[in-house]
Amino acid sequence: MAEYTITSPNEIRIKSLLLSDIQGMHTLLKKEGCINSENKFTDEQKAIALDEVQTRIAQQNKTDKQASADVLLCVSGNKYLLADAKFNSTSVKNISSTELKSKLSSSKGLVLSDDYTYANAFYVLFKQSVLTPSQYNRLKRQLVGKPQFRFMNAVEFWRLFE
Burial of 11 by CB count in 10 Å (0-12 exposed, 13-18 middle, 19+ buried)? Predict the structure, then answer.
């Protein structure tokens, strides 16, 4: 039983969103460094590439780009969840709760729709080879008391939707 059902992101209002920011999940994760053997998503499953939105806002405002989650997925029940792809990381050591909280805050700040609510889930995705049980436990200890941050690989993430 799937935890979530991906719905079309076409209805959610995001600050400075362009149609080109809505992308297939397979392509989006591949661009973020997810290897094909771990990327089970299809491009029929659509999400919003928040990095591209943040880059555009920074250019428009002539400011530094705010760090945000990489992916915003709309799911049934008019909820959205966020994912940050760390597929190019070789270790979990440089993950900080301050950075994740900042990304969460700036990502939520982009959502203009009152009828969408945050699903209280911020997924941080790693390659299977990086997120070993000991590294996973290290992250859990580091972010104790922050249940909205969930660490997993791309296959585990995909299983939430199948």
Answer: exposed
Contact status, residue 100 vs residue 122, Cβ threshold 8 Å: yes
Q: State residue 32 phi and psi, 5-degree precision.
A: -85, 0
Whether pTM > 0.70 for this model: the answer is yes
- Report how far residue 37's alpha carbon sits from residue 129's, in angstroms, rounded to the nearest whole number: 12
Strands 117-126 and 79-85: parallel
What are the φ and ψ backbone dihedral angles of 83, each rounded to 5 degrees?
Answer: -135, 140
Return the percentage of the chain with pLDDT > 70, whole number. Answer: 99
Q: Is 73:157 a contact under the CB 8 Å cutoff?
A: no
